[in-house]
Write a structure and sequence with these properties.
The chain is α/β, with parallel strands linked by helices. The protein contains 13 helices and 10 strands. The strands form 3 sheets. A 4-stranded mixed sheet has the order 1-7-6-5, sandwiched between helices. Strand 2, helix 4 (about 95-100) and strand 3 form a beta-alpha-beta unit. It is globular. The protein starts with about 20 loop residues before the first helix and ends with a helix. Bound molecules: pyridoxal-5'-phosphate. Pyridoxal-5'-phosphate binds near residues 90, 94, 136 and 185.
């Protein structure tokens, strides 16, 4: 025995790796020394920089994407007994946000190409209790907003995965005027550790969200008057400072993500039956968030993920169908077969390692491992 740890055959390639550096460190240090850790000057500065970047009038920073969705739905007037039409192929928070207001998320199936809520299916799910439509820009690919806008109902956008995405008409995702929630969790295009922001064209919506994120305090910030029900959904100045520093280099980070995605596309092109994320079409542009492939039909996903792990490649099933989660089955009586496109996609989807600094060598290793595992 030499006492040396056993050599590892492969370094693990992680699923995600936040890209933070000296600029963020300096920004945080400045806040710590300023003595204004929350509700200080970085909050409006971050909001202004973010809204300017998207070409929209207003933004309200909040503690998470989920908090943003909750307040955006409240601002859209969603309440007790209402229905919100949304996608079953999303992170669970988009549907949960409706339930916070005692509304019912009503799912409709997805488009098999974009994996976003299908506007026709959504239209068919509308009833006289529907008060809002909540499209999700899944995996950063723009949902078909013009088609949803034609349905004439209030819209709340889940843009948590879609910073940097652009609609065919040139508007940024989150820049069309509807309240749109972005998330800044550590795996996102821009991260503040935890955090989120709601963009809106409506100054009244901004005022309401600003108040409700801060315990319902009146706009003059008087301590004594809380003129509505509110929450603590504030984002600290520490987080806002990180966000400002991240915004400065967002273009570079987005370009690196796009470069990694293009390399994956090339490296995985020859694997038979493997479906890659859809290419941009019709002028819509994805803001790259994750690289999710759909395994060939008949392939054992769990075994594939396990075999990849043995080769030092992290991956995970992403995303499970929301309506088939136990809480949703038990609460709303959902069953298999209701949304066949979503269920098929959800059963075959695997997220591969994806972050701006992924190297060409690591991409090759992931591709080689996946090829070997699938050809076994
Ligand atoms: C589609 C979608 N919606 C909502 C959320 C919730 O965001 P957060 O984790 O910041 O609350 C996320 C983030 O993970 C997401 O991917």
């Amino acid at each position: 025995m030499t006492g040396r740890p056993p050599a590892r055959l492969h370094e693990q390639i992680p699923l995600a790796q936040p890209l933070l550096g000296d600029a963020e460190e300096r920004a945080v240090r400045d806040v710590l020394r300023s003595g204004q850790l929350s509700l200080g000057p970085r909050l409006p500065a971050f909001e202004r920089a973010f809204s300017a970047r998207l070409g929209i009038g207003h933004a309200s920073a909040v503690s998470s994407g989920t908090a943003g969705l909750h307040l955006a739905l409240r601002a859209a007037g969603v309440s007790d007994g209402d229905e919100v039409v949304t996608s079953p192929f999303s992170f669970v928070a988009s549907a949960n946000a409706a339930i916070y207001e005692r509304a019912r998320p009503v799912f409709a199936d997805i488009d098999p190409r974009t994996l976003n809520l299908d506007p026709q299916a959504a239209a068919a799910a509308i009833t006289d209790r529907t008060t809002a439509i909540l499209p999700v820009h899944i995996f950063g690919y723009p949902a078909d907003l013009p088609a949803f806008e034609a349905l004439g109902l209030p819209i709340v956008e889940d843009a948590c995965e879609a910073l940097g995405a652009v609609h065919a008409d040139g508007t940024a995702v989150g820049g069309r005027g509807h309240p749109a929630a972005f998330g800044f969790y550590a795996n996102k295009q821009l991260t503040t550790g935890e955090g989120g922001i709601v963009t809106t064209a409506d100054a009244g919506v901004k005022a309401r969200i600003d108040s409700e994120r801060n315990q319902g305090r009146a706009p003059d910030m008087g301590w004594l008057d809380h003129d509505r029900l509110g929450f603590n959904y504030r984002l600290s100045d520490i987080a806002c400072a990180i966000g400002l520093a991240q915004l400065e280099r967002l273009d570079d980070m987005l370009a690196d993500r796009a470069r990694v995605a293009a390399s994956y596309r090339e490296a995985l092109a020859d694997i038979e039956g493997l479906e890659l994320p859809c290419e941009d079409a019709g002028g819509d542009r994805r803001g790259w968030f994750v690289f999710v492939v759909q395994l060939p039909r008949g392939c054992d996903r769990d075994a594939t993920i396990g075999a990849l792990r043995e080769q030092g490649v992290q991956s995970k099933p992403y995303l499970p169908a929301i309506h088939l989660m136990s809480f949703y089955r038990e609460t709303f009586g959902h069953r298999e077969g209701e949304f066949p496109i979503c269920e098929d996609v959800a059963a075959r989807s695997v997220a591969l390692p994806f972050f701006p600094e992924l190297t060409a060598g690591q991409i090759e290793r992931v591709a080689a491992a996946l090829r070997a595992v699938l050809h076994r």
